[in-house]
């Protein structure tokens, strides 16, 4: 009997694509899994190399503006790195880039949306020095944001503005 042992890593492949949509700060419903193959396209079951994830705007594009969270580097086990708990905090489209040495592969695009409404901010503050009975020079604009400061475009809250004369008003 002849026993063949796979050689070192020659290529990477995404064997389980992550979810195509996600909420900021929440672990992707489907997590990425990456497999390593030798020069003969055999699963490199003896390889113990590490695979590291980074987030990018496109495959080969700039590193994305947000933060990827979770265990971002794993050793291959029987030729496969199966990630868990990976999440991203900025509402934007990203791809995950898996790298091992000089090899890399990218996932499908993940569209990350804002998380749950957390707080309100003035994106345009009311003008100071208002004249009684006259319209404000600039109208205030209030936005609802998630915990990561993403604009929650799906929020349907009713916002009521009123006057407040105490200069100790909280932020």
Strand order of the largest sheet: 2-10-9-4-6
Flag low-confidence runs. Answer: none
The count of DSSP E runs of length 2 or more, i.e. the number of strands, is 12
- Rg for CA atoms: 24 Å
Major sheet characteristics:
5 strands, mixed
Order of helices and strands: EEEEEEEEEEEE
Helix content bin: under 10%
Number of helices: 0
Based on the structure, what is the oligomeric state of the protein chains? single chain
Mean pLDDT: 91
Task: Bin the strand percentage.
Answer: 35-45%
The secondary structure category is mainly beta
Tertiary shape:
rod-shaped
Distance between the termini: 75 Å
Tell me what you see in this structure:
This protein has strands at 11-16, 21-23, 33-37, 50-56, 68-69, 73-75, 80-82, 87-88, 93-100, 103-113, 119-124, 141-145. The chain is mainly β. The protein has a five-stranded mixed β-sheet, with no helix packed on it. A three-stranded antiparallel β-sheet has the order 1-3-7, with no helix packed on it. It has a two-stranded antiparallel sheet with strand order 5-8. Strand 9 and strand 10 form a beta hairpin.
Descriptors:
171 residues, mainly beta, five-stranded mixed beta sheet, three-stranded antiparallel beta sheet, 36% strand, rod-shaped
């Amino acid at each position: 009997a002849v026993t063949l042992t796979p050689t070192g890593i020659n290529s990477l492949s995404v064997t389980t694509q992550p979810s195509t949509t996600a909420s900021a700060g929440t672990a992707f419903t489907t997590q990425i899994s990456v497999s390593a193959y030798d020069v003969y396209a055999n699963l490199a079951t003896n390889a113990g190399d590490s695979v590291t994830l980074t987030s990018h705007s496109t495959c080969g594009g700039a590193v994305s503006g947000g933060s990827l969270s979770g265990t971002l580097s794993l050793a291959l086990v029987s030729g496969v790195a199966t990630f868990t708990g990976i999440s991203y905090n900025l509402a934007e489209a990203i791809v995950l880039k898996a790298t091992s040495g000089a090899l890399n592969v990218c996932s499908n695009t993940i569209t990350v949306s804002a998380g749950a409404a957390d707080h309100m901010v003035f994106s345009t503050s009311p003008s100071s020095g208002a004249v009684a009975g006259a319209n404000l020079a600039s109208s205030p604009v209030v936005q609802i944001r998630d915990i990561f400061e993403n604009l929650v475009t799906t929020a349907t809250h009713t916002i009521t503005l009123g006057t407040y004369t105490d200069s100790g008003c909280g932020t």
